[in-house]
Write a structure and sequence with these properties.
Strand content: 5-15%
Helix content: 40-55%
CATH topology: Rossmann fold
Structural class: alpha/beta
CATH architecture: 3-Layer(aba) Sandwich
Shape: globular
Strand order of the largest sheet: 3-2-1-4-5-6-10
Radius of gyration: 19 Å
CATH superfamily: NAD(P)-binding Rossmann-like Domain
CATH class: Alpha Beta
Distance between the termini: 6 Å
Number of domains: 1
Number of strands: 11
Number of helices: 12
Amino acid sequence: MRRKLEAAFDGKSVLVTGHTGFKGAWISMALRSFGARVSGYSIDVPTEPSIFRNLSEEIFENSQWGDVADKPAMNKFMQETNPDFVFHLAAQPLVSRSYEDPLLTVQSNTLGTLVVADAIRSLEKEVTAIFITSDKCYENIEQIWGYSENDKLGGSDIYSASKAAAEILLSAYHRSFLTKGNMKMATARAGNVIGGGDWSPNRVVPDIITSHRAGKEVLLRSPDSTRPWQHVLEPVIGYLLLSVNLAENLVDSGESYNFGPALRPRTVRDLFNQMKAHIPDLREANRKSEPDFHEAGLLALNCEKAFAHFGWAPVLNFEETIRFTVDWYSQFYSGKSVNDICQDQISEYLAKMGADD
């Protein structure tokens, strides 16, 4: 598998939008480890601390600041980088913020996505593009079985609705403009992603790590809610495999794929307790915190399509996912370089995958 990914990406120009974010930084590191020439486009660095600010500068050939909804700027940068592959992750990624700024959320997640698609289509070469949306694009009726790619899209909050809208518009865009032409595309819907380097607000792992570092008790929000927790490398490697198979015409353009864990979703308290096994002095606050906005209690994905079409399946169990995550922060705060930590975990992940050949 490593050789397949190196053969696909070595020397290729790859554009990652949202490269300054948690998942964007990880996919950029993975691409660079397979020999890609990586360029990034983001509006800002979304958190402080930041995984992006701790990466070595040589990871990126070109790093551009701008709004993905700015069509002239995006077109110009697309022409300058002339990518072979595009991974579109730039977004307003938080449900909570969508309540504070719904228009920004829609502009970034919906209009911005179409601007990127149109900029890719303007290139005079063959390009493979993966548009990352969210598992929250499904109309969540809190069913106990996982949502499949053909289930109804929707959303009871602006963030979820914006991701559903992006999926619908990309499907229409493909049928309108891409049945013939130079652009192959797919959308990817991932479950709740955790791992080292995430400092986003209102996310449980950063909240736990930040509280522990400050010597505070951890106040869990909706502790009985279940989520399809998975380590960031699970979908990242899934996106790369999807793009390679799409580029080689082994899967059809215009399709959507789920990326989630194999086992049943776990609760927020399950995650806290598993982290406590590695950080014994974690302390949970003896009071409840409920969100002041709607948040689904149950969410799960069916990922059989990705396995059937190109053999992707999750590698890490729940315990390993938490170990990877806690180890990353432990090494970071002990002074080890982010590049080394990430590369070590990428190598360990591929070894577990049986993919080092």
